[in-house]
Amino acid sequence: MKTELYHQLVTLIHATYTWVDVMDASAEETFSFHTGGSFYPVQSRVLCLVAKWSNYNYPKGHCWRIPEFMLDNAIRTLSQNASFRKRCRKEQLLYTDAEAIIKEASFGHIILELEK
User: Fold this and answer.
1) Which one of 51, 59, 86, 108 has the largest count of C-beta atoms within 10 Å of its C-beta?
2) Closest listed residue to residue 91, CA positions, set 27, 30, 15, 11
3) CB 76 within 8 A of CB 105
4) Strand pairing of 63-67 and 20-35?
């Protein structure tokens, strides 16, 4: 993921959050991928989100860690929509785009409910 796009996503979430905010956007972790019968370590940025208030089944303080490769996969999936792809290329995401990216990257578990 482009650094500018990543920072724009983080800024959008932080500026328009209702119950989930960005806790850390600079964390990195090592993940292992299995391919060809072997495991390979990959270093990746991790977006850390925190629940500021209880909502749904998540208590206040609940943390989620979303690896950058999951955000990339979400963007790739959402890029099938031409208008989203155009905004992504121009690095002009809307808050609704940020919601969609996080929802897709978290397999529908995190619904940000951002407000403009």
Assistant:
1) 51
2) 11
3) no
4) unpaired
pLDDT at 107: 96
Q: How many CA atoms lie within 13 A of 5 on its CB side?
A: 18
Determine the pLDDT at residue 21.
Answer: 96
Residue 34 region by backbone torsions, left for phi larger than 0, else alpha for psi between -120 and 50, else beta: beta
58 SS3 class:
strand
pLDDT tens per residue across span 99-110: 999 999 999 999
Cα-flanking dihedrals φ and ψ of residue 29, to 5°?
Answer: -140, 160
70 token code pair: 């999951």
The strands making up 38-51's β-sheet, listed across from edge to edge, are 20-35, 38-51, 63-67
pLDDT tens sequence across 49-91: 999 999 889 999 999 999 999 999 999 999 999 999 999 999 9
CA atoms within 13 A on the CB side of 20: 23
3-state helix, strand, coil in the chain (%, to 5): 40, 30, 30
